Amino acid sequence: RTRPFQVAIDGPAASGKSTTAKMVAQRLGFDYIDTGAFYRCVTYVALSKGIDPLDPHSSKKISALAEQAEIGLQTIFSREQDTMTNGSQKAATLPTTRVFLDSTDVSSEIRTNRVSQYVSAVAAIGPVREAILQKVRKMGATGDDQGSSSRLGLVMDGRDIGTVVLPQADLKVFLVADSRVRAERRLQELVRNGADPTRDILDAKAVQDDLEKRDEQDRTRKVSPLKKAIDAMELDTSNLTLEGQVEVIVNEVNRRRGA
Ligand code: CDP
Ligand code: CDP
Ligand code: CDP
Question: Is any atom of ligand 3 closer than 6 Å to the C-beta of 231?
Answer without folding.
Answer: yes
